[in-house]
């Protein structure tokens, strides 16, 4: 699945940060859910959110860093991450929070 996101991720402290807008991430997840349900494919899609608390924790904890780096989609779940990414020259479209994604998916 990671290959499908080429051009939509950027290395951020060694993590593959998704740079897409929330509506695009939501549409991608919804499509994967529909496709998986229609084909009875039980493959797991892992979406993680990165915020200013989780990033330093991941940099200290190898297991957390590994889990985040293997995510199918790692979104910037906080303006601190968005601003830091932009300062590093990474064009993150917007903040994508887990709760906003869940609300959109359940709508």
Radius of gyration, in angstroms, nearest whole number:
14 Å
Task: Please give the count of helices.
Answer: 5
Strands side by side in the biggest sheet: 1-2
Low-pLDDT windows of residues? none
SSE succession: EEHEHHEHH
Distance between the amino and carboxyl termini: 25 Å
Strand composition percent = 5-15%
Give the fraction of residues assigned to helices.
40-55%
Write down the domain tally.
1
Helix and strand content put the structural class at: alpha+beta
The dominant shape is globular
Mind summarizing the main beta sheet?
2 strands, antiparallel
Average pLDDT level: 89
Question: Quaternary arrangement of the chains shown?
Answer: single chain
How many strand segments?
Answer: 4
């Amino acid at each position: 699945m990671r290959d499908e996101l080429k051009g939509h991720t950027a290395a951020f402290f060694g993590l593959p940060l998704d740079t897409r807008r929330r509506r695009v991430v939501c549409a991608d997840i919804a499509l994967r859910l529909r496709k998986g349900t229609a084909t009875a494919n039980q493959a797991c899609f892992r979406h993680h959110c990165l915020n200013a608390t989780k990033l330093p924790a991941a940099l200290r904890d190898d297991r957390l860093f590994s889990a985040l780096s293997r995510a199918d989609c790692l979104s910037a779940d906080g303006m601190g991450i968005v601003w830091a990414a932009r300062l590093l020259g990474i064009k993150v479209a917007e903040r994508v929070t887990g709760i906003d994604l869940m609300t959109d998916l359940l709508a």
